[in-house]
Write a structure and sequence with these properties.
There is one protein chain. By secondary structure, the chain is mainly β. It has a domain of 27 residues. It is built from no helices and two strands. A two-stranded antiparallel sheet has the order 1-2. Strand 1 and strand 2 form a beta hairpin. The radius of gyration is 13 Å and the shape is globular.
Amino acid sequence: MNGRKVSVLADENQTQGQHQIQWSSKQKGFLKPVEGIYICKITTSGKTEVVKLLVQNK
């Protein structure tokens, strides 16, 4: 792992409820991610969760 920030997918307040965010290489400014393990940090109402994501390009 390089420890570099790859992207910020959302950086604004959201209304309460479920939300879905997709990381797509077709969106402007996004590069197709290299295969590997990525760390995803999600912060909501002062609570932070960190998860590992495995990317496999097919």
